[in-house]
Amino acid sequence: MAEAYAHPEVIVSADWVVAHLNDPKVRIVESDEDILLYDLAHIPGAVRIDWQGDLQDQLVRDYINPEKFAALCSRSGITPDTTVVFYGDKSNWWACYAFWAFKLFGHADCRVLNGGRKLWLDQGRPTSTEVPKYPATQYSVKGGDVARIRIFRDGVLAHSNSGLPLLDVRSPKEFTGEKLHMEDYPQEGALRGGHIPGAKNVPWSRAVNEDGTFKSVAELKSIFETEIGLKPSDNVVAYCRIGERSSLTWFVLTYLLGYPQVRNYDGSWTEWGNLVGAPIAKGA
Amino acid sequence: MLLDFARRLPPLPERLAAHKDASHRVEECQSPVYLFVEFIGDQIALYADAPIEAPTVRGFVALLLEGLNGATLEDVLKVPNDLVERCGLTEILGMLRVRGLGGVLRRVKSEATRAAMARSEPPAGGAPA
Question: Which of A40, A118, A242 is facing B96, going by the closest CB pair?
Fold first, then answer.
């Protein structure tokens, strides 16, 4: 039998979700890149939590504060003891991003539906367009171990200067600095292309199969350990453009391979590529 | 509302569906969106394809098609460049999501200009010596 994931309980199958559709201890959360997908169809009983509108502060570039997070959970019918199962489009990018954000606030029991939205639909599983209403809960924010899973630019600079493992999970062209297709989008673009010195390029998508499920432990080890040279004891930082794709890589390394020291740099390239004086490397 | 538009985007005509290549792809969009601009007389004819998995951009594309088909080049160029913001979409969708939508509109305008120019150029060859 194939080697089990380091924390197998965080991955749930579609069958598991079907068996728990009416379980009051379980809340299914859809998080997508395209905000309208939830309206087209979602898992019956699932609530929508939007990475941008719900989880990010609309003024400061940061996540919402604990009071707003408590209010979000309360209106979504989530208690501190609820098992929250995330799923979404794009092979669960945004699901992993929401998972990571929930961990910033210390929510205990978070899981991801393997295969995400696409596999659920491809398998003809039940869907609904009805938006469920749950009684408001009392949610007190426990507070997560933020320093263990999130890193800011100064920390990243020190990390890079120390030659510690850095993973750039963007596409190869973004990594080399060739791609900067942002001419009319000053609010979106970066002024420099390239990567953080010392980073290795492992596009996020390599960790997932065609059907959106996660690759096996053996396959993941061959990428991250044999090819990239990581060890479970490494202190690893992952980044992408805004921290969404790297949340998936963070999830894979932390929960599937069991690396205890992986942090996501959510400032990512939209911060680093605009940061005055930040060192940058170009090319492959 | 965008969702209603997304649901009724007509499929590409067969003759164009075969040409879904890079030159017709709207690069600004993260999702594969293909755009074709033609003129029938003075009137613009727009065709587009956007994935069902990206209902926001699909809805916006459908809205542009419904709004602009049959318009003249002049009218197309009159559409405000900040249409996306004027519709309030930035607030609803967030800054990071609307970038592709503005890109679709700019692409419609530049393609329309190009198609109109091509039409008004004299046919190649046969020019007097």
Answer: A242
